[in-house]
Amino acid sequence: DAPRTAFGWPVVPDALRQLLLRLRDSYGKALPPVTVTENGCSVAEDTDPDQPRIDYLATHLDALAQAVAEGIDIRGYYTWSLLDNFEWAEGFTQRFGLVHVDFETQKRTTRASYAWYRDLIAAHRADHPR
Question: Which residues are within 8 A (CB) of 113 and not within 5 positions of it... i.e. 6 or more apart?
């Protein structure tokens, strides 16, 4: 049974890889380079040290790396979201941000996932200088 986000959505990182492979198989050379523009999960506000979000991001980024190894041209990845925000039908109840927002005071506090993602990006830059 797959883990679930606070929203109740199943966490299935390999589905991202499978989707990308299906697009490649369907469109071949007509498939343009891919940028994943929103990928993230809601985590219960009282979860500490934010490990479910880190696990979610790590496993989805691993799935993207596997897709690249299988020939998918992935040019970018953006996690959803930098800040906790208003989620259409759910209002302010779902917490997607790498940065916690106290909606009453607007105080922003980085979560463990923020530091993890920052460090991952820095390590990648060190391994792949321009």
Answer: 50, 53, 54, 57, 98
Strand partners, 34: 74
From CA 41, how far away is CA 115, in angstroms rounded? Answer: 16
Q: Which two tokens stand for residue 99?
A: 């940065």
Strand partners, 39: 79
Q: Which amino acid is at 90?
A: E
Overall average pLDDT of the 11-39 stretch: 97
Q: Rounded to an integer, what is the distance from CA 32 to the centroid of its chain? A: 21
φ and ψ of 78, to 5 deg: -125, 125
Instruction: Enumerate domains of the chain plus CATH numbers.
Output: 13-127 (3.20.20.80)
pTM of the model: 0.94
Q: What's the pLDDT tens digit per position in 36-49?
A: 999 999 999 887 78
Give me the residue label for tokens 């679930």.
4
Interatomic CA distance for residues 17 and 36, integer angstroms: 11
